[in-house]
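Readers outside the structure-tokenisation community will struggle with the description of the input data as it stands. What matters is that the chain and its backbone geometry are given together, residue for residue. For illustration, here is how one protein appears when written out as sequence plus structure tokens:

…
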Amino acid sequence: KRYSYIKTYSYIVQRVGQILTSYKINSADLPEDTYGAKVYREYRYRGVLEEAGKGYPIIFDAINFFLRLKEKFSIDSFSYNTHSFEIKKYIFLKLFAFISFNIKDTNILGKKGERVLNEYKDLTEKALNSENINSMLKHLEQLNNLCIKEDISSGGAADIFAATFAMLKIFALL
């Protein structure tokens, strides 16, 4: 029954996203000085507007990814306790790497271009494919160093991560 609510909610989010996207795209007074506008001019990619129009499928893909990890490691609850803390940390970091790898961040693309975005995605893929927490932490540290060196952030991924976490709480999946 819970999954039928998720499907219904996904449909509502998608319809609202389509309405907002249609309004925003058709509006004559779009700001021209944003990274999103620059990315659209150069790459014809709409970023978060495109995701909104689709109903943020990345959030629902991330929920499914999280549930597979939760099942793989036999974690029933994410309530506060010290039992399985390292595994829970690993799952959340892996979820963040999944989101970071699967979105095309218009801030990074607009600010630094495809080369830096591809380097960012390569590091997130390495973190995502890590088989243990130490390896993942090593790759995430490299990602952090890239972000500092290039003056970029994982802001887009962090926004999607927060939305995913909220949905997990709303649907009592944590």
Remarks:
- The chain is about 75% helix and 0% strand.
- Residues 2-170 form one domain.
